[in-house]
C-alpha cells in the first residue's frame, strides 16, 4: 500500500526562532522555513528578477550571497486536484517512479506532531561525480478552504535538511544540504479545452535552495538551475496525468 501525505498543523503560537541552525530542533527549522516561504511566495521583491516563462510554468531566481547559489521560485499549473498532485509529489513510492534524480526514500522517524525524517538518495548521472544523499525533515499541512462553491484542499509542504545524525555520511555519497524546499498547492479553476467546461486544477508554487556540495562548480549549478527546474516541472506534470489514469507504474 502506498503512503499518502502526512498532515501537521502548526499554529501561530508555535513560531520559534532566534538560535543558530545547529542549535535548533527540526521542528523549529521547519516552522521558521514555513513562515519565510509563505511570505516570499507571494512577494514581488525585485531581487527575484523578471523571471522566465516555459509553457505552463514561470521561474524566478534570487542570488544568495551566503551560499553562492541561486534560490529558485517556480509557479505553474497542473491539471489535477490538490490531493492527486500532493500524492505524486510526496508519496515516496510514487516519487521514485517519475523523478529520475530521486532513486530512494526511506522514512527514519515520524514524530507525534507529524514531522517526518527522511533519508533521500539521489543520482546526478554525471560520470565520475559521486551521487548525493540528504537527510530531510518534512511537514505537510493540509487545509480546507471554500472556493468556487465547494470545499477545496490547500497543501503546504516544507522540507529542510535535518539536524538528525542517525545516518552517518557514506563514502560513496556526498551529503547535500537542502536549505529549503517549500511547496504550496492551491485549487484553481481552468477551462478544459476539450469539454469547454471549467474544472478544478492546481496552482503549484515552490521555492527551493539546495546545495549539492562537493566538487560541482557552483557556477555550473547556477547556469543549469532554471532549465533543470523547468524540465523537472514537465516530468511532474506528465507523471500527475499518468497517475490520474492509473498508469504511473514502474517500468
What are the salient characteristics of this protein?
251 residues, alpha+beta, Alpha-D-Glucose-1,6-Bisphosphate, Chain A, domain 4, 10-stranded mixed β-sheet, 4 helices, 23% helix, 39% strand, disordered N terminus
How would you describe this structure to a colleague?
This protein has helices at residues 26-40, 82-90, 92-98, 218-244; strands spanning 52-54, 57-64, 69-78, 102-110, 116-122, 131-147, 150-161, 173-175, 177-191, 198-211. It has one domain: Alpha-D-Glucose-1,6-Bisphosphate, Chain A, domain 4 (2-Layer Sandwich). The protein is built from 4 helices and 10 strands; from the N terminus they run H-E-E-E-H-H-E-E-E-E-E-E-E-H. The protein has 251 residues and is α+β, with helices and mostly antiparallel strands. A hairpin with a 5-residue loop joins strand 4 (102-110) and strand 5 (116-122). It is globular, with a radius of gyration of 18 Å. Strands 1, 2, 3, 4, 5, 6, 7, 8, 9 and 10 form a 10-stranded mixed β-sheet that branches. Helix 2 (82-90) crosses helix 4.
Amino acid at each position: 500500500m502506498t503512503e499518502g501525505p502526512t498532515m501537521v498543523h502548526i499554529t501561530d503560537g508555535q513560531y520559534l526562532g532566534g538560535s543558530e541552525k545547529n542549535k535548533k530542533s527540526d521542528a523549529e527549522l521547519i516552522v521558521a522555513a514555513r513562515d519565510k516561504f509563505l511570505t516570499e511566495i507571494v512577494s514581488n521583491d525585485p531581487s527575484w528578477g523578471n523571471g522566465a516563462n516555459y509553457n505552463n510554468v514561470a521561474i524566478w531566481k534570487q542570488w544568495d550571497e551566503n551560499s553562492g547559489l541561486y534560490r529558485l521560485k517556480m509557479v505553474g499549473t497542473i491539471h489535477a486536484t490538490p490531493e492527486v498532485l500532493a500524492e505524486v509529489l510526496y508519496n515516496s513510492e510514487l516519487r521514485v517512479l517519475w523523478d529520475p534524480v530521486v532513486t530512494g526514500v526511506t522514512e527514519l522517524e515520524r514524530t507525534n506532531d507529524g514531522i517526518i525524517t527522511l533519508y533521500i538518495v539521489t543520482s546526478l548521472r554525471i560520470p565520475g561525480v559521486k551521487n548525493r544523499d540528504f537527510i530531510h525533515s518534512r511537514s505537510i499541512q493540509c487545509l480546507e478552504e471554500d472556493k468556487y462553491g465547494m470545499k477545496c484542499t490547500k497543501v503546504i509542504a516544507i522540507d529542510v535538511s535535518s539536524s538528525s545524525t542517525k545516518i552517518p555520511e557514506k563514502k560513496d555519497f556526498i551529503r547535500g544540504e537542502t536549505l529549503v524546499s517549500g511547496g504550496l498547492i492551491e485549487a484553481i479553476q481552468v477551462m478544459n479545452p476539450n469539454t469547454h467546461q471549467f474544472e478544478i486544477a492546481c496552482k503549484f508554487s515552490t521555492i527551493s535552495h539546495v546545495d549539492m556540495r562537493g566538487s560541482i562548480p557552483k557556477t555550473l549549478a547556477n547556469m543549469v538551475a532554471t532549465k533543470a527546474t523547468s524540465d523537472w516541472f514537465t516530468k511532474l506534470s506528465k507523471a500527475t496525468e499518468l497517475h490520474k489514469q492509473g498508469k504511473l507504474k514502474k517500468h
